[in-house]
Amino acid sequence: MRVIVGISGGSGAIYGVALLKVLQQLNIETHLVVSTLGEYVTQHECGMSLEELKGLATYYHDNKDLAASIASGSFKTDAMIIAPCSMKTVAAVANGLSDNLLTRAADVIIKENRKLVVIPRETPLSSIHLENMLKLSRLGVTVLPASPGFYNHPQSIGDMVSSIVGRALDQIGVEHNLIERWGE
Fold this sequence. Notes:
A six-stranded parallel beta sheet has the order 3-2-1-4-5-6, with helices on both faces. It is an alpha/beta fold. Helix 1 crosses helix 7 and helix 4 crosses helix 6. The protein has helices at about 15-25, 35-45, 50-55, 85-95, 100-110, 125-140, 155-170, and strands at about 1-5, 30-35, 60, 80-85, 115-120, 140-145. The protein is about 40% helix and about 15% strand. The protein has a single domain (about 1-85, about 95-170), classed as Rossmann fold. The radius of gyration is 15 Å and the shape is globular.
């Protein structure tokens, strides 16, 4: 399996970091692309440099490199997850603005009818945000807000993060044991 992981500038870089760690443990090929603000937020919230983040991915692509492999539909990928997905990135993807590699890769995933999952992290949501997410949903994109459930009684922030990462992996068909399934 080959998965593109995008990290944009919304708060919640912990989701992207956790996703990369799990995919690395599962030996799944990852192609990482990080926006400028995604790099900043990852450093600010997780204390992790871009170099450390790169170490969690199989391949890293600079966000300015629109000639990267993941910018082409002929480069076969299985899915893309943007975690977190800022409202700027949501708007760009919803409206086909492929002005950087992150949004171009998402555009390619949509046009090739592959699985795209966005994990928006914003509150409150304006009507503009909601309309852009609705537009993505109508295009077949999974909009998976970073809203963990509490029915499994999480004991830590890590448990809450794992629940969101697990749900995102469910959406792209990756088997994992991150979450306790209801009724099991």
